[in-house]
Design brief:
alpha+beta; Sulfite Oxidase, Chain A, domain 2; 2 domains; 7 helices; binds the ligand Nc1nc2c(c(=O)[nH]1)N[C@H]1C(S)=C(S)[C@@H](COP(=O)(O)O)O[C@H]1N2; binds molybdenum atom
Amino acid sequence: MSLRKRPSLPGLDGPAVLKEAGRILETRVEQPSRRAFLRNSLTLGGLAMLSGCSLSDDEHVEKALAAVSRFNDRVQGWIFDPGKLAPTYPESMITRPFPFNAYYGIDEVPSVDEESFRLEVTGLVADKRRWRLDELRAMAQIDQVTRHICVEGWSAIGKWGGVPFSSFLKRVGADLDARYVGFKCADDYYTSIDMPTALHPQTILALSYDGQTLPPEYGFPMKLRMPTKLGYKNPKHIQAIFVTNTYPGGYWEDQGYNWFGGS
Ligand SMILES: Nc1nc2c(c(=O)[nH]1)N[C@H]1C(S)=C(S)[C@@H](COP(=O)(O)O)O[C@H]1N2
Ligand SMILES: [Mo]
């Protein structure tokens, strides 16, 4: 890492401090106390301050950011409490109209044909049968009013209904000890989540929005709705679900967004 020393902090060997900080943080990850560990959570600014250096060129800043992001994934995965529920709201607080967002405009929303649609389920699952939409609708449904938070600076409250994702994973005989569940979407979007979040009681394979069939712009035929994760982790237009131990990444995650993406 090329680091420019700050003249105001003489006597500090930046690279050595950085290396030492990294070593301490790595060992802390393995320690049992999550609370103690949280106090040592790190930001890039903190890293630069700690080292008495300014991160000077873009490539090295990128590398440092990627390292901090991977580190934060581990912290977030570690402190995620599978029993803790995200807030829910009364229906009177639903945001109307609910905002649309995608990496393209609303005129390019994919149209999926209900009759020919089959959900693909692959990877570490016992039953790789494809699912018709009405078969999913025949499973027990729940609904919830929760807040969707987008990193682009808006949030909105909506009501989604569908199959608890944990029921679906159990039904297809998924390996619940696998690390990841990945999603491929009709618009080429893709993302993946950790298994503890997949099994969280508020994670639903959503088939409806506000009591009606999920409209095209909000993700027909189905989206994964997780109030414990930021907007970009909630895939719309899901076509394929796979269970894997190989890190699948994601559309925004591969461009630098934090993979865990907790909200
Ligand atoms: N298939 C697909 N899913 C996606 C996206 C997308 O572009 N394509 N965008 C994500 C982002 S960044 C957000 S904020 C939400 C927006 O969901 P909404 O249109 O229901 O508000 O969808 C997420 N899921
Ligand atoms: Mo978003």
